[in-house]
């Protein structure tokens, strides 16, 4: 497994749990040291235990020596990052191609080289070329096996997936992949074998569709606010229709995270380059960007038009709960704008504060709990719906604050209870 980030680590640990022998190769020395000492560089529920168990069982190892990891491997997974390339929105494939070259140099016999990273259509073919150029005569196949896990429930998603998609073009490669995923056949998880391009596109299509669903309900929330409707009832009313489905219909400050923003952008570029532009996804990208920017304005308006000299408490910084991932979190533009407009920001997040520090203005005060973030604040903003925020007693929260403005960007509170506690309460898409 080349890359010991979210996907490499979770996939590696789960493959080991399936009974496979897995060697994870991680290039970043600090991450590798942590992994070798039994500390995880990321927060993911249940992962520490799973890693520890499989290390103890001798099925999971960590190192930086690609040659040692690849020797004798039947499959080599590439799970390195594919961030947005600066300037043009394309996925940056530098790490993927570098890994492919390193793998080719290290291989001595047949193996399937599998991309688990989310990569644009055509990457699998390019990897095959790189391997052939680097190591002529080597026996290998390429395959695409995009990963659909969600941070926060990654292990469950990996162990009990809705489906596994495998793009592979030889029976030998398909058989290797079947063996690796053997336990999933026993639980009858759908395993779809496709062509390589199809598998590559399926990942972008899935993420773009989900991003579109989120963006749709966010627009409905704006409309609800104008006409006095309740977006949760609308979401339920449409979501109970089996053709639509209930998930990903929760309104909020706009999608973020390590996947949706970069994958929607990449699909836009893939589609444009292929001469079949995806106008829907283009619009999703711009609507979502505008929404994130508009959230700070919403908070400022709730504070009477200015936050200069005000103290704003922020609950939650990560892009969603149960992760420490801050990539493209709506908290980043929101907090930046509040500080720019003269607010003092005091924030609390259960897991993401270390990751947040390099991304947020230096003036932020980080608190040790939610109540401390509320203490003395003129306004309080819920940016991420961590469960522990739901249970905060409204009266105590209100009593700790100097002001009474509460902007709930995730609709975690009952409006009536908040008004009864004396808050000037604002949420998304409902009265
Ligand atoms: N994070 C998610 O929820 C998620 C879900 C599905 C798919 N994906 C996709 O999976 C891929 C990886 O995402 P991630 O979140 O795990 O990224 P990440 O940045 O957390 O991890 C990538 C890791 O690879 C390491 N690396 C890079 N080049 C290397 C090399 N040559 N040798 C060894 N290690 C190397 C990096 O140091 C880093 O630790 C991306 O394409 C992403 O789009 C991510």
Give descriptors for this structure.
alpha/beta, 19 helices, 431 residues, globular, five-stranded mixed β-sheet
Topology:
Blueprint: H1 6-17, E1 22-25, H2 29-36, H3 47-56, E2 60-63, H4 66-70, E3 75-78, H5 94-106, E4 111-115, H6 123-134, E5 140-144, H7 154-159, E6 164-168, H8 171-180, H9 182-186, E7 191-194, H10 196-227, H11 231-239, H12 260-273, H13 279-302, E8 311-315, H14 331-340, E9 344-348, H15 353-356, E10 365-366, H16 370-374, E11 379-382, H17 387-390, H18 394-400, E12 405-408, H19 415-420, E13 424-426
Parallel strand pairs: 1-2, 3-4, 4-5, 6-7, 8-9, 8-11, 9-10, 11-12, 12-13
Antiparallel strand pairs: 5-6
Helix pairs in contact: 1-3, 5-6, 10-12, 10-13, 12-13, 13-14
Can you walk through the features of this model?
The chain is an alpha/beta fold and 431 residues long. It contains 19 helices and 13 strands. The strands form three sheets. Strands 10-9-8-11-12-13 form a six-stranded parallel β-sheet. Strands 3-4-5-6-7 form a five-stranded mixed β-sheet, with helices on both faces. α5 links the parallel β3 and β4. α13 (279-302) crosses α14 (331-340). The mean pLDDT is 96. Bound molecules: nicotinamide-adenine-dinucleotide.
């Amino acid at each position: 497994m080349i890359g010991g980030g979210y996907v490499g680590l979770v996939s590696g640990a789960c493959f080991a749990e399936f009974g496979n022998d897995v060697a994870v190769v991680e290039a970043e020395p600090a991450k590798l040291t942590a992994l070798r000492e039994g500390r995880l560089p990321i927060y993911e529920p249940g992962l520490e235990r799973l890693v520890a168990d499989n290390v103890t069982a001798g099925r999971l190892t960590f190192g930086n020596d690609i040659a040692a990891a690849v020797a004798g491997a039947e499959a080599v997974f590439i799970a390195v990052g594919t961030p947005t390339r600066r300037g043009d929105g394309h996925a940056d494939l530098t790490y993927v191609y570098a890994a492919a070259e390193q793998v080719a140099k290290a291989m001595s016999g047949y193996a399937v080289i599998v991309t688990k990273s989310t990569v644009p259509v055509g990457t699998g073919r390019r990897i095959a070329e790189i391997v052939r150029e680097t190591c002529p005569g080597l026996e290998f196949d390429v395959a695409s096996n995009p990963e659909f896990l969600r941070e926060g429930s990654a292990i469950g998603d990996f162990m009990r997936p809705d489906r596994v998609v495998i793009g592979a073009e030889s029976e030998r490669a398909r058989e290797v992949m079947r063996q690796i995923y053997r336990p999933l056949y026993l639980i009858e998880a759908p395993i779809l074998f496709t062509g390589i391009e199809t598998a590559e596109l399926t990942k972008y299509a899935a993420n773009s569709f989900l991003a579109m669903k989120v963006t749709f309900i966010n627009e409905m929330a704006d409309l609800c606010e104008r006409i006095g409707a309740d977006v949760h009832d609308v979401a339920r009313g449409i979501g109970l229709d089996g053709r639509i489905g209930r998930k990903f219909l929760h309104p909020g400050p706009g999608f973020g995270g390590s996947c949706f923003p970069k994958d929607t952008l990449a699909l836009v570029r893939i589609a444009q380059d292929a001469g079949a532009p995806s106008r829907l996804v283009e619009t999703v990208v711009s609507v979502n960007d505008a929404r994130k920017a508009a959230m700070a304005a919403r908070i400022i308006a709730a504070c009477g038009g200015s936050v200069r000299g005000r103290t704003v408490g922020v609950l939650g910084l990560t892009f969603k709960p149960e992760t420490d991932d801050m990539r493209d979190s709506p908290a980043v533009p929101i907090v930046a704008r509040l500080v720019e407009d003269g607010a003092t920001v005091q924030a609390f997040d259960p897991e993401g504060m270390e990751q947040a520090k390099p991304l947020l203005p230096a003036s932020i005060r980080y608190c040790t709990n939610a109540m401390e973030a509320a203490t003395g604040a003129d306004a309080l903003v819920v940016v991420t719906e961590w469960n522990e925020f739901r249970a905060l007693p409204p009266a105590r929260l209100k009593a700790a604050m100097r002001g009474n403005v509460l902007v709930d960007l995730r609709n975690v509170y009952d409006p009536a209870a908040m008004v009864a506690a004396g808050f000037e309460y604002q949420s998304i898409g409902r009265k």
